[in-house]
Amino acid sequence: MAERGRGGPASTVEPGTAERAGRLRRALRPLASLWLLAALLLVWELAARADPSPFLPPFSVVAARFGEDWFAPAPGTLLLSERFLDAVPVSLSRLARGWALAAVLGIAIGVLLGRSRAARALASPVIRFWMSVPGVAVLPIALQFFGVSDAVSVFLIAFGSVWIIATHTADGVAGVDPGWLRTARSLRLPRGALLLRVVLPAAAPSILAGLRVSLGFGLVLMIVAELYATTAGLGHDIALYQQTFRYPEMWSAFLLVALLGIALNGAVDLVERRVLRWRRRG
Amino acid sequence: MEITIERLAKRYGDRPALDPISARIGQGEFVAVVGPSGCGKSTLLMLLAGLLPAGEGRVLLDEVPVDGPPAGVSVVFQDYARSLFPWLTVRRNLALAAVAERPARAELEHRIDRALRSVGLPDTAARFPWQLSGGQQQRVAIARALVAEPRVLLMDEPFAAVDAQTRADLQDLVLRLREEYGVTIVLVTHDVDESVYLADRVLVLSPAPGRVLRDLVVDLPAPRGQLVTKALPRFAELRAEVFRLVMRPVDGAAP
Fold first, then answer.
1. Is A119 left (phi over 0), alpha (psi -120 to 50) or beta?
2. Dihedrals phi, psi of B8, to nearest 5 degrees
3. Which of A105, A221, B81, B113 is at a distance of 20 to 30 A from A70, taking alpha carbons?
């Protein structure tokens, strides 16, 4: 969004000083909110240098390691390292499969529950039970069933996310403005059109909130499952480096997970802004 | 389409909303229903639209009893914001009105364009409802009603949420559409002037539970116009009569 007056060949009018200052301030605003983060990283750096320990290397070392580990260009791989290509696609594919499964099931269950008060009353104790069980607690059970395999991660991610998506969807669907439903009835919309054109879009704010929260859960469960139940992936890498005393690499993998989380959140933000354009009316 | 109302009544729990009402509305007729607030006039309209189940009695459309929203009947609601779907463009909002009968694509496009032209908004198809003014949104709602090619148009206080200038525009728009589409119209309103200005007949309902106090023929000449019609002595007489009927029952009982 940072549209600068300078450098753009299309800008014919030189912006005034006040305007330029305003633009500068706007461009710097995101940076201004990052000062606390920068300060914390600085504290990390100084603390690690003041009291060196192999367990906590200075941030500068981790950052250098991070660049080497993940972005050292291997031939024919754009800027990404072999290590990146070995770990990230595997992990993200598990997350995508698990989360997509949870989204499909969760929205379907949520619509059923949201449309029927009776179904809601019947199912709510069950859902509340599963929502109170931390997804991680299911890991040993899943291991028992699936063995050390991809299926454990996918199952765990899906299972840990589906209830949140289902309850958010049910809330959204049950709360659709009766005015819209009445209009839909008077238009004699068939079931499919009613669902796709009216109910789901009207419930979209709540559904997207559920998807956003569940994505965070999914990321956590992805890492947890990989710590125990796989032979590749980011979680597996973190555990491996920790067990083999390669602490800078452990921290660098940790950093990558954090950045992935931020990127995924940003992606959901974009989708949300696009899909919910109509909410910013007026 | 002819509407026959046979001893139609409705209760909400213990509270009677509508006492048995009987009336006939002929093909192409424009009937306004007025009455004090809470008299059940909106309930009557929802019963005609098949959006509420009747308590007693029934509604016939050309001899066919109404149970559920009938084909050939379009409804325009008061609150356009809760009637148009803000996540759909104007074109898609209008297209929904024809989903039930699945016309061919070209036919649908033609109907949508015609309806938008009829309400004076030919260039808004790609916009979203919330990008339009209140009056424009209500025009879109009316255009959507037209896309279904209705034979009956039911309007529930359609001009209550817009300013006076816009209201006058929309009233004249409805008169024009009636000529253009030859549709039977039932309009619920609390605005006495509006009922007399627009309708061929005014049904005056009593306070709740509503029953028909008077079925008044509006013998004003066509075509009607805001200035000409409202300046006629007969307009003033009819207006005064409807006003008296609407106000009478609460004389001396006002809080």
1. alpha
2. -80, 125
3. A221
Chain A residues contacting B, CB < 8 Å? 177, 179-180, 182-190, 193, 197-198, 201-202, 204, 277-279, 281-282
Q: Which of A188, A278, A281 sits opposite B71 (nearest CB)?
A: A188
Does the beta-carbon distance from B71 to A204 stay under 8 Å? no
Evaluate if residue A77 carries a pLDDT over 80. no
Residue A67 lies in a domain: no
Which domain, by its residues, includes A176? 77-281
* Closest chain A residue to the Cα of B86, Cα to Cα: A278
b/e string for A131-153 if b means 16 or more Cβ within 10 A?
Answer: beeebeebbeebbeebeeebbbb
* pLDDT confidence band for B139 (50 / 70 / 90): very high
Q: Is residue A29 part of a domain?
A: no
Q: Which of A180, A185, A282 sits opposite B130 (nearest CB)?
A: A282
Residue A50 lies in a domain: no
Counting the structural domains of chain A, the total is 1
Helices (H), A147-199: 150-174, 178-186, 191-193
Q: Give the pLDDT score at B250.
A: 52
Q: Does A154 reside within a domain?
A: yes
A248: number of CA atoms within 13 Å, CB side? 16
What is the per-residue pLDDT across A221-270, written as a single tens digit (0 to 9) for each?
999 998 887 788 999 999 999 999 999 999 999 999 999 999 999 999 99
CA distance A216 to chain B (A): 27
State the CATH number of the domain containing residue A259. 1.10.3720.10
A-B contacts (CB, under 8 Å): 63
Model pTM score: 0.83
- Which tokens go with B161? 């949420």
Residue that the structure tokens 């007969």 belong to: B234
Q: Quick one: average pLDDT of B91-118? A: 93
* Model confidence pLDDT, tens digit, residues B50-78: 999 988 999 999 999 999 999 999 999 99
